[in-house]
C-alpha cells in the first residue's frame, strides 16, 4: 500500500529560504529559530572529523585475497553496528555521473522561484519542491529547500513533478538512480554476509525495492547557531546513499554517544547510512542512527540523497537468525507500506517514528 496524501492540513506560510537569504536578513524569522535545547553546537566535536568509518568497496568485490575481503567485511560490520554510518570509496559509480547529477541539482535550485514552484510539494506529502514533514502552523522550519521524487517502481512516480528544466534533468536522475540502485543491492549483499547470512536474504525480503531521491539545498544563514538545516531524524529506508556537494563543506552531523559528530566529506566518496528497516530486520544489531544538518554563515551546501527501501507490500520483522534467548525480539512485524505512511505523516523527530514497531518492555 502506497503512502496516501493527508486531508488538507494547516501549515501556515512556509518561506522559501533561498528567497529569504537574498535579502541577507540579520534577524532570522521566528519560525526558523530553534528552542534553546535544539540549537546546534557548531564548535568541532571532540572526536576527529574523520572518525566515521571508511569502507573500500573495491576490497569487498575484488580484494587481493581472502584476508583483504574478510578485513573489509569486518570493517563494514563494525561501521553498521557501532556507527550506523560509513563513507564508501571506490564505489564504481562514474565520477562524471556524480558531477553531472550534482550540476543538475544545483541548476534546478538556481532556477527562478516561479519555475521551481511549478512542481510544488503539497502540504502533508513528500514529493516535489518545498519543505517536507511540516504538519502544523507552530512547527519550527528547517533552513533548507528540498526537491524530492519517487523513482522506483514506476507507480510511485508522479510524472507531473519531474522538471523540464534544466534540460536533461530527468535523464540524468534516471541514470544516476540506476547506478545507486546497483550499489545498494551490492552493499546489502555484503551487509548480509557481514551478519553471517545468505547474500540474497535482503533482496528476497524486499521484492521490487522502493527508491526515492531527495535533493537538499541549504543556503548560507547569518545565524547558523539559531537554526537547523535539517531536523534530527533517522531514515525510514533500508539504506540511504548521500552525495555531498563538491564544495565539501561540513553540514551533516550524526549522534554518537550523545554528541553530534560532523561527517567530513571525502572527495568522491558516498555516505551510506543504515535506515530503520535494517535496524528492525537485524533486531537492533545494526542501528539507524539519528542525524541532522547544520548551516554555515557564508557557504551554501547541497546534498543528494537516495532512499532505498522494501516494496510497500512486504511484511517485515526481525530475522529469526538474529534472535535468541539473549536477544529477544525487539520489534513487531508490520507492513512496510504502513510504516512508510506513518513515516511521511509525522514530523522528523529523532528516532520517534520507529516507536511504531518497537515492542515496549
Ligand atoms: C527523510 O526521509 C525522507 O524524506 C524519505 C522520503 C521518501 C519518499 C519519497 C521522497 C517519495 C516516495 C515515497 C518515499 C516515502 C519513499 C525517506 O524515505 C524513507 C522513509 C521510508 C518509510 C522509506 O521507505 O524510505
Ligand atoms: O543533507 C544532509 O547532509 C542530510 C540529509 C538527510 O539526512 C536526509 O535527507 O535524510
Ligand atoms: Fe536522513
Query: Which percent range describes the beta-strand content?
Result: 15-25%
Assembly annotation: single chain
Q: Rg from C-alpha positions?
A: 20 Å
Principal-axis shape equals: globular
Give average pLDDT, whole number.
Answer: 93
Structural class: alpha+beta
Under CATH, the topology can be stated as: Jelly Rolls
Please indicate the count of domains. 1
Going across the major beta sheet, what is the strand order? 1-2-10-7-12-5-4-3
How many H/I helical runs?
Answer: 9
List how many beta strands DSSP finds.
Answer: 14
Please give the alpha-carbon distance between the first and last residues: 29 Å
- Going by CATH, the homologous superfamily would be B-lactam Antibiotic, Isopenicillin N Synthase, Chain
Could you name the CATH class?
A: Mainly Beta
Q: Would you identify the CATH architecture?
A: Sandwich
> What kind of sheet is the major sheet?
8 strands, mixed
Q: What order do the SSEs take from the amino end to the carboxyl end, as H and E? A: HEHHEHHEEHHEEEEEEHEEEEH
Ligands (ions, cofactors included): ligand LMOEUUAE, 2-oxoglutaric acid, fe (ii) ion
GO molecular function: L-ascorbic acid binding; metal ion binding; oxidoreductase activity
InterPro entries: DIOX_N (IPR026992), IPNS-like_FE2OG_OXY (IPR044861), Oxoglu/Fe-dep_dioxygenase_dom (IPR005123), Plant_2OG-oxidoreductases (IPR050295)
Domain Fe2OG dioxygenase: 208-310
Pfam families: 2OG-FeII_Oxy, DIOX_N
Amino acid at each position: 500500500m502506497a503512502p496516501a496524501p493527508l486531508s488538507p492540513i494547516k501549515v501556515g506560510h512556509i518561506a522559501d529560504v533561498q528567497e529569504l537569504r537574498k535579502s541577507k536578513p540579520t534577524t532570522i524569522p521566528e519560525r526558523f529559530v530553534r528552542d534553546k535545547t535544539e540549537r546546534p553546537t557548531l564548535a568541532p566535536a571532540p572526536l576527529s572529523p574523520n572518525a566515521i568509518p571508511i569502507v573500500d568497496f573495491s576490497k569487498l568485490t575484488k580484494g587481493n585475497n581472502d584476508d583483504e575481503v574478510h578485513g573489509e567485511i569486518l570493517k563494514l560490520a563494525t561501521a553498521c553496528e557501532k556507527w550506523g554510518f560509513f563513507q564508501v570509496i571506490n564505489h564504481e559509480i562514474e565520477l562524471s555521473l556524480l558531477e553531472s547529477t550534482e550540476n543538475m541539482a544545483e541548476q534546478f535550485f538556481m532556477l527562478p522561484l516561479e519555475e521551481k514552484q511549478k512542481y510544488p510539494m503539497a502540504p502533508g506529502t513528500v514529493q516535489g519542491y518545498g519543505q517536507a514533514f511540516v504538519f502544523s502552523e507552530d512547527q519550527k522550519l528547517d533552513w533548507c529547500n528540498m526537491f524530492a521524487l519517487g523513482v522506483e517502481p514506476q507507480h510511485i512516480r508522479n510524472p507531473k513533478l519531474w522538471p523540464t528544466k534544466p534540460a536533461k534533468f530527468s535523464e540524468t536522475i534516471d541514470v544516476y538512480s540506476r547506478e545507486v540502485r546497483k550499489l545498494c543491492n551490492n552493499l546489502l549483499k555484503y551487509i548480509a554476509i557481514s551478519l553471517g547470512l545468505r547474500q540474497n536474504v535482503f533482496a528476497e525480503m524486499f521484492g521490487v525495492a522502493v527508491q526515492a531521491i531527495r535533493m537538499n539545498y541549504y543556503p548560507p544563514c547569518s545565524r547558523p547557531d539559531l537554526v537547523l538545516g535539517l531536523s534530527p531524524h533517522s531514515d525510514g529506508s533500508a539504506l540511504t546513499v548521500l552525495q555531498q556537494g563538491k564544495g565539501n563543506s561540513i553540514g551533516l552531523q550524526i549522534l554518537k554517544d550523545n554528541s553530534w559528530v560532523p561527517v567530513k566529506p571525502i572527495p568522491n566518496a558516498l555516505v551510506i547510512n543504515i535506515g530503520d528497516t535494517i535496524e528492525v530486520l537485524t533486531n537492533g544489531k545494526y542501528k539507524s542512527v539519528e542525524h541532522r544538518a547544520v548551516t554555515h554563515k557564508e557557504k551554501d551546501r547541497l546534498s543528494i540523497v537516495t532512499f532505498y527501501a522494501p516494496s510497500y507490500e512486504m511484511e517485515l520483522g526481525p530475522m529469526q537468525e538474529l534472535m535468541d534467548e539473549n536477544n529477544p525480539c525487539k520489534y513487531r512485524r508490520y507492513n512496510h507500506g504502513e510504516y512508510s505512511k506513518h513515516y511521511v505523516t509525522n514530523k522528523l523527530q529523532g528516532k520517534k517514528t520507529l516507536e511504531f514497531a518497537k515492542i515496549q518492555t
